[in-house]
Amino acid sequence: MPTVGVARTMIDETVEEIAEMQTHSSSVVAVKAARALGDLTEREFATVEEYERSLERNAKALQRASPSHASLHNAMRDVVDAVSDADSGDVTAAQTATTDAIESVVETIESGKRNAAANAAEYLEDGQTILTHDYSSTVLEAVEAATQDGKYFDAYVTEARPRYLGRKTARTLAAIDRIDAHLCTDSAAGYYLEECDLVAVGMDCIVDDTLYNRVGTFPIAATAARMDVPVVVVGSASKIIDGGFVFENEFRSPSEVMREPAEGFTVENPAYDATPTDLVDAVITDDGIREY
User: Fold this and answer.
1) φ and ψ at 235, to 5 degrees?
2) How does residue 21 score in pLDDT terms, banded at 50, 70 and 90?
3) What is the CATH number of the domain that holds 130?
4) d(Cα 283, Cα 137) in Å, to the nearest integer?
5) Are both 133 and 211 inside the same structural domain?
6) pTM, to two decimals
């Protein structure tokens, strides 16, 4: 069996990867974290209690790596709760319960994302011009599925500075038949919105009446509302939280904004912003369409 040090290092690597945003989709983050907990099933523990304490400790470490991700928070909680509720009689049984819980959580996340994309694909209309922000794998899956049904789209993509994740979105869209993709700076969104029929974005989470998503979403939604362009949000229903979760924004390194030292001023680099849901026309999830 692997040594304790190796198992801890593997989880630590996942914590570091999540913290550094090497995986951008919140669904992907949650799946990676759940899979990382599987390392504990290959270690030796003296008692069930010791194993469950280690599971809970590592789950919390993974949660802290990205406290803004509701799907990560829920995935870690669901695995820990499932193992606790199993009331295993020995360590092997607890580890088996962990494996089963991980597979269940991963399937829930992936099927939720897949079904949300399918519902969004039906919602999208042939010939629409769509503006999207940042990188949402669910939005991309929805658009691609819609093109497979024979629909055509023009798509404007904002760069999502300072990490420029929108460039990845534009490249992905450009590789899909029946899509004419355009990349624009974040500040040009208002200029191109007058040509758009719809804004489609993903979500980190919705807590009560607030959408939390990549910074830049709020000004786009506010401008779209002013210009009577509908805004739709696409994502798994598990990202909609009614209580028990407090969103914590992340503040990224100033070096993402400018490489040279800041002299006499502070560089602000929040990862997310808050958009009131009254600026959103519809939220499309695996459960269906929720209109606002």
Assistant:
1) 175, 170
2) low
3) 3.40.50.10470
4) 16
5) yes
6) 0.83
